């Protein structure tokens, strides 16, 4: 008995509308939500065109299928999974091929799906539970007949073979899905046992994993009710495809500070320093409305909390690595992590998110949404109000002693003249223009002074 | 004043601080500052009490709010019971009503949690890095507060009381941590509850983990003075800690099975019982097949368990082998005694109690079983002053006497007997129904055999 995929009509439209050059293939992602009984697909995005570094690669293999850039497909999947709020995730891949390549498509899809799952789940701070569905869907589309073949693979089992699955189109699959939301105060103290970037990365991961476990074990109230046992999520909304109103359910999370162990003495580590992750994150999660259990909804919002903190720390460290090389690592002082912004996906109205570095603007976000999710979102629809801007200058080396438990009672504010870490991500239009203008003004003022004399 | 409820709040708070120099003068104030932060945390609006096995959440620091509409500021604390799902589903049906006695106050267990949602601000996160070499100290503090209340006490008052108790416990913990700290070595402060005679009632003392009772004598002396406790018997050793009625004993032995029995109704007679807590030891326990020869050993184990649980000794209840070895060590038996299945009597029990526990005992000799009925006064006195279980050996059997019902006027007497010859499992129902722990008359004894009784004496210590 195979799985059943209920797919939004908007996805059908998108897939039908994909343009393929004759004889070539197009890959893409399918996103949505899995539940034990059935799966829901709400988004499809084709793999963006990769800017080639010089000469386009000569065809290596016998067929265009061999030319599929697995690395790029999986990288795209990772980027997109960071943009999906809780409850939504990558469910699988689609592959459009000309008729003559159809019979080899299955193998290509199998290779891709395993590679993608492996790449996306690397570095995840929470474990899959027994109830989590580990099947991923592969959809093959013939570019000429538009006929689709839908199969699933259990990505937990490397030897698994393709199982047939149902692919059904429906209107408004997610239109009545309630959205859970909350803002969470994060305050994690992580000791650093070294200063190289490898050690920093490991310490950060360990520290965040401990925090993630607290969140996973936390007590959760959804809409004022305990999310316990097998009770159904009470959203008070009947399933009605005509209703476009989506309910927002507030979630509240209560943690216990730490795990108790049987030790009789404190854990003391000699550290070369410490890193604190502190601030408020805004979180969202969707839950399908086919008799969902409250605890699944709780799990979805908790995973979003964990993912959003983990993602932005990862992005920050990746960025650091690109800009400064691996020898530098984190510098002292306070540095802003990218903040989360939300935007609606056209038609379904589901929120997707993105992360804005301090020197970026909504224009950059819009550009990324277009590139990664193939959706045109007007800049004014991008909501940047949910997480507040960090109000301090992002200067390395300034000792801002705000932590009350520091052993130093001295409040040193020594400004070391270090260059602002330049961000390769976005062109520094605004900053650059401002500096140029200032210099020009200064030059004019100086020259005026001289001339007047 | 009888308390109907005990509200028990448990939770873990992580104590964390960074010390530049653990031996420097600054470190004490850093540690105190961290404790100050923890005290602020428990008085903040973010703390929440969840009531175990129920959907109830209470925010005690927001002028009392609960997640359940019917529980408000004005609610009596007893109202909370209707929301709690009990663990056992009606196992009480099978017990005979007349034998059931009141089991004491109801315990309401609560857990301390912190809300991380609904934050004060919404500034997105930053990374804050400190690059000085430091000692990072992390220690989970096992908070455990208990409040004894009557049923009409308001729930709001209980919660405010618990917040105060948390604050006080943190202050006590800070004191203990600072007192026993050596550089960067910190001992975990552990709370223990003790049920003291009124008016003190249920109190909590924080002891440093890993420091044995023997080294905390001075602390106990201070507390004995403060609470006006007698100076010759222990009240505040860790073993004396209050056992909450709803908690199971981890070792699986039954405690005080006799409390489930009603004493015989003899005209003009008074009840004299063992004081405190003992464990029921009997044949076949601990995978030792001592059926037919181990009865005196088991009675001795019951007595040892009493001294351990009253806090007089820290040593575990001895095994048959350890008992035999002790007798060899004092020269009472040859080395080949160890591993044998030889019986022992009251004299040997007295010797082992002395050798392993440092406890002295009086021996009472009765030339024939029928005479035991005349020993009412001696036994009554023993239970009143010492209150220890008595081992009796004679004929071919050994038993434990846990108390007497005795009339000074008529001389009528009944004996509360704990029988070590029971070979079954720790089933309270069977043990009480079938008389393995039960009241017996003078005819219980072999009227012609002679008996020796070992009456252990309490050491004078705290």
From TrEMBL, chain A:
<keyword id="KW-1133">Transmembrane helix</keyword>
<keyword id="KW-0472">Membrane</keyword>
<dbReference type="GO" id="GO:0012505">
    <property type="term" value="C:endomembrane system"/>
</dbReference>
<dbReference type="InterPro" id="IPR029454">
    <property type="entry name" value="ODR-4-like"/>
</dbReference>
<keyword id="KW-0812">Transmembrane</keyword>
<dbReference type="GO" id="GO:0016020">
    <property type="term" value="C:membrane"/>
</dbReference>
<dbReference type="Pfam" id="PF14778">
    <property type="entry name" value="ODR4-like"/>
</dbReference>
<dbReference type="GO" id="GO:0008104">
    <property type="term" value="P:intracellular protein localization"/>
</dbReference>
<feature type="region of interest" description="Disordered">
    <location>
        <begin position="400"/>
        <end position="420"/>
    </location>
</feature>
<feature type="transmembrane region" description="Helical">
    <location>
        <begin position="429"/>
        <end position="451"/>
    </location>
</feature>
<comment type="function">
    <text>May play a role in the trafficking of a subset of G-protein coupled receptors.</text>
</comment>
<comment type="similarity">
    <text>Belongs to the ODR-4 family.</text>
</comment>
<protein>
    <recommendedName>
        <fullName>Protein odr-4 homolog</fullName>
    </recommendedName>
</protein>
UniProtKB/TrEMBL annotation, chain B:
<keyword id="KW-0378">Hydrolase</keyword>
<feature type="domain" description="UFSP1/2/DUB catalytic">
    <location>
        <begin position="271"/>
        <end position="454"/>
    </location>
</feature>
<dbReference type="GO" id="GO:0005783">
    <property type="term" value="C:endoplasmic reticulum"/>
</dbReference>
<dbReference type="GO" id="GO:0005634">
    <property type="term" value="C:nucleus"/>
</dbReference>
<dbReference type="InterPro" id="IPR049387">
    <property type="entry name" value="UFSP2-like_2nd"/>
</dbReference>
<dbReference type="InterPro" id="IPR012462">
    <property type="entry name" value="UFSP1/2_DUB_cat"/>
</dbReference>
<dbReference type="Pfam" id="PF20908">
    <property type="entry name" value="UfSP2_N"/>
</dbReference>
<protein>
    <recommendedName>
        <fullName>Ufm1-specific protease 2</fullName>
    </recommendedName>
</protein>
<dbReference type="Pfam" id="PF07910">
    <property type="entry name" value="Peptidase_C78"/>
</dbReference>
<feature type="domain" description="UFSP2 second">
    <location>
        <begin position="32"/>
        <end position="249"/>
    </location>
</feature>
<comment type="similarity">
    <text>Belongs to the peptidase C78 family.</text>
</comment>
<keyword id="KW-0788">Thiol protease</keyword>
<dbReference type="GO" id="GO:0006508">
    <property type="term" value="P:proteolysis"/>
</dbReference>
<keyword id="KW-0645">Protease</keyword>
<keyword id="KW-0833">Ubl conjugation pathway</keyword>
<dbReference type="GO" id="GO:0071567">
    <property type="term" value="F:deUFMylase activity"/>
</dbReference>
